Amino acid sequence: MRASGTSTGDHPVDVPGFAAKPRRVRGATVGAALAVALAATGCGGGSPEKAASAPTLVRVVAGDGPAREVATGWVAGDGRVVTVAHAVAGARRVRVLVDGAARPARVLARSARLDVAVLAVAGLRGGAAPRSADGRAGQRAAVWVLRDGTARRLDATIRRAITARVHPQPGDAPQVRPGLELTAPIAAGDSGAPLMDADGRLLGVAFARSGERPDIAYAVSGAATSRLLSTSRR
Q1: Looking at the predicted structure, is the pLDDT value of residue 56 above 70?
Q2: Nearest one of 207, 203, 204 to 191, comparing CA atoms
Q3: Contact 169, 142 (CB under 8 A)
Q4: At 224, phi and psi to the nearest 5?
Q5: Cys staple from 168: which of 4, 17, 79, 218, with CB 3.0 to 4.6 Å?
Q6: Within the chain, where are the H helices?
Q7: 129: which DSSP letter?
Q8: Does residue 127 come out as left (phi exceeding 0), alpha (psi in the -120 to 50 range) or beta?
């Protein structure tokens, strides 16, 4: 596939989607090569200049049995959790794991184009949703993930802003979303993890990783995510 069309200063990148995952527990692995050459600018690790406090993370489980989907979610105010839309698509039962206990969740808002979903979870308490900010090439940030039930910060570097053209299945029309290309070692189940700057502002939400380079990941923009969250509160 070739990237086509124009964008307002961003790099158009074709992303094949989620069809070639190695297993059902979704980290949204990108299974084929990207259609454009990836610039090497901005690569590398490094911690943010100062560490922001960890967001409240939850594990999102959709469906039952071996076909269930597992993703990451984060609390965005009382009764609200943000995660990826592809994990909850078509699920009859969704729940979040909080302190080892499962709570039922309802899909309140979902955007397949952005791959973001907002869940309603009765009785869940949390601080206000973080403010969003635009990520810039070369900026150091953190992807917050769950490891053994504990929030862990993964060092990340923004390589560039992109216009992601995601093809959920071969032959499907692309879902175009504003995004960021990152250097970050995300793993299966990390889809939905928030990308945050040193001041705790939301830069993006992880939705995929490269199938050829495990250190390359993709996030939908934090501003687009915040707009969907605001709409869900109306």
Answers
A1: yes
A2: 207
A3: no
A4: -65, -40
A5: 17
A6: 85-88, 222-232
A7: P
A8: beta
- What is the chain's percent helix, strand, coil content, to nearest 5? 10, 40, 50
Closest CA to 184 of 48, 24, 15: 48
Beta carbons of 117 and 83 less than 8 angstroms apart:
yes
Q: Is the sign of the CA dihedral 140, 58, 185, 36 positive or negative?
A: negative
Its sign, for the CA torsion 27, 33, 39, 43, is positive
CB atoms near residue 131 (< 10 Å): 12
- For residues 32 and 149, is the Cβ–Cβ distance under 8 A? no
pLDDT given at position 42: 26
Q: Comparing 106 with 5, which gets the higher pLDDT?
A: 106
Would you give the distance in Å from CA 210 to the centre of its chain?
A: 13
Q: Per the structure block, which two tokens stand in for 205?
A: 């939400």
Show the tokens assigned to 57.
Answer: 């993370």
Cα-Cα-Cα-Cα dihedral sign, residues 143, 146, 151, 153: negative
CA 182 to chain centre: 11
Q: Cβ–Cβ contacts within 10 Å for residue 159, how many?
A: 25
Instruction: List Cβ neighbours of 11 (8 Å cut-off, separation of 6 or more).
Output: 3, 36, 39, 160, 161, 162, 163, 181
pLDDT > 70? residue 87: yes
pTM of the model: 0.80
At CA 174, angle to CA 169 and CA 179, rounded to 5?
A: 110
Is residue 113 classed as helix, strand or coil in its secondary structure?
coil
